[in-house]
Amino acid sequence: MLDDTLRQRIDQEVGSNDVVLFMKGTPVFPQCGFSAVVVQVLSHLGVKFKGVNVLEDPSIRDGIKEYSAWPTIPQLYVKGEFVGGCDIVREMFESGELTEMLSTHGIDARPAA
Fold it and tell me: What is the 3-state secondary structure (H, E, C) of 83-98?
């Protein structure tokens, strides 16, 4: 069960950043292939985002799964809304849906030339 303190910490991260990626490792040094793929997609689109390294805090690592009702990491949030994990982000990127969704939310997303 997600306690109130942990829920508030996650709410704070999700609410105070336009784009947040709960991931294993950091944006500069992802520590799993799935996290690396999402970092690569966001970087390719030029999206500024905050990475939260779940490996540094086991309570966040477990809590984010309950928070989103999503069993895996990484997890991407845009303007407080849960988007999905690696496969969903990759599929949305490939279809153009991710760029469109980011733009709809006022996030500048332009593929690198």
Answer: EECHHHHHHHHHHCHH
Angstrom CA distances, 101 to 35, 44, 88, stand at: 20, 16, 13
Question: Is 34:88 a contact under the CB 8 Å cutoff?
Answer: no
Rounded to whole angstroms, the Cα distance separating 67 from 69 reads: 6
Q: Match 């469109």 to its residue by tokens.
A: 100
Both ends of the chain: CA-CA distance in Å?
A: 45
Burial 79-95 (b: 16+ CB within 10 A, else e): beebbbbbebbbebbee
Q: What is the pLDDT of residues 19-71, one digit of tens each?
A: 999 999 999 999 999 999 999 999 999 999 999 999 999 999 999 999 999 99
Closest CA to 98 of 21, 51, 52, 41: 41
Q: Give the global pTM.
A: 0.95
